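> call design_seq(struct)
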């Protein structure tokens, strides 16, 4: 029977979030040139979408492959409201996210009876349908793209510097990590894990399967739409090919490489995949070839992904502490147990 009431202190430790925040924000200090910051923006945007996908695939066990479609809704919705309607950035983003969440919840409700490969194909079809609609000639530019999109502004200040744009998306990613960590430690998060492990047992203890599945699809679409909504004004131009079905597959690879169920692994996977695609020459073909080889090796050597390396390090450190008989000053630790006397 699934245990959904566990709330021990170890599970509520937020030190990994603090470490992740320091590393993410510190990237902008180490790589302060425009090219490095532009790469950082792409990594962070992909990480936000990958964290959302991790909640569906890794935590809830639902194989969804349409995340790029939700990114497109957030991106095009924000771009349209800012460019054609003159709505400020801070208002355009929430409005577009409401639309994204509604569509995500609808997809989640329709896909309730689907599992495994059928669910994967259905969600991939949704993403492909959104991509096909955007390619058609329309007010959103069709295949030629949509531009120029006004840059983001915060309280009257334009965010046009490379460093400002990076820290904008980096702070959002840190907030996303904190929120998802809280979700995973809360009762709904534990219920999602119970659904993933054994849906029949989860239903038997009173978990509302329908509500939780719809909610996780809505949250995943929210984070996908947020990634697109942040990226569109920063890039000032978007086109449907940025949200093709291949992008959904790349996000899936990020989750696999990072480690199923690990939000920090999703960030690492996003960094690796984005860096490879950006830096390796050959129109992306060599990058995808190398990426495929990395996936094969990772599945054979590290079935838990890059997050598994962190777990192995923690376990090794814990074993070394348990095996050490010495106290802090190198002397043997005292014991309160009385010595047993030999029987007469």
């Amino acid at each position: 029977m699934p245990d959904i009431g566990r709330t021990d202190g170890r599970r509520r430790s937020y030190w990994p979030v603090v470490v992740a925040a320091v590393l993410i924000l510190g990237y902008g200090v180490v790589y302060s040139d425009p090219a490095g910051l532009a790469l950082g923006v792409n990594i962070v945007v992909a990480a936000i979408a990958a964290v959302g996908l991790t909640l569906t695939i890794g935590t809830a066990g639902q194989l969804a492959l349409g995340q790029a479609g939700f990114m497109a809704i957030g991106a095009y919705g924000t771009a349209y409201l800012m460019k054609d309607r003159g709505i400020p950035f801070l208002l355009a983003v929430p409005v577009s996210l409401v639309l994204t969440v509604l569509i995500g919840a609808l997809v989640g409700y329709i896909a309730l009876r689907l599992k495994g490969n059928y669910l994967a194909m259905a969600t991939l079809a949704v993403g492909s349908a959104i991509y096909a609609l955007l390619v058609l000639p329309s007010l959103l530019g069709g295949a030629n793209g949509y531009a120029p999109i006004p840059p983001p502004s915060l309280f009257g200040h334009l965010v046009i510097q490379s460093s400002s744009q990076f820290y904008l998306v980096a702070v959002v990613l840190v907030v996303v990590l904190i929120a998802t960590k809280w979700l995973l430690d809360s009762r709904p998060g534990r219920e999602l894990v119970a659904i993933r492990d054994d849906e029949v047992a989860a239903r038997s203890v009173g978990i509302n399967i329908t509500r939780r599945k719809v909610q996780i699809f809505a949250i995943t679409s929210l984070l996908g739409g947020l990634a697109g909504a942040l990226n569109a004004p920063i890039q000032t131009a978007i086109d449907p090919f940025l949200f093709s079905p291949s992008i959904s597959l790349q996000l899936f690879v990020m989750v696999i490489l990072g480690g199923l169920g690990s939000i920090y692994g999703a960030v690492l996977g996003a960094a690796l995949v984005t860096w490879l695609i950006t830096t390796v020459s050959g129109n992306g073909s060599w990058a995808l070839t190398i990426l495929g080889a990395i996936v094969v090796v990772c599945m054979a050597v590290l079935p838990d992904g890059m997050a598994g390396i962190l777990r192995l390090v923690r376990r090794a450190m814990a074993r070394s502490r348990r095996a050490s008989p010495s106290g802090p000053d190198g002397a043997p630790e005292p014991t309160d147990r009385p010595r047993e006397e030999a029987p007469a």
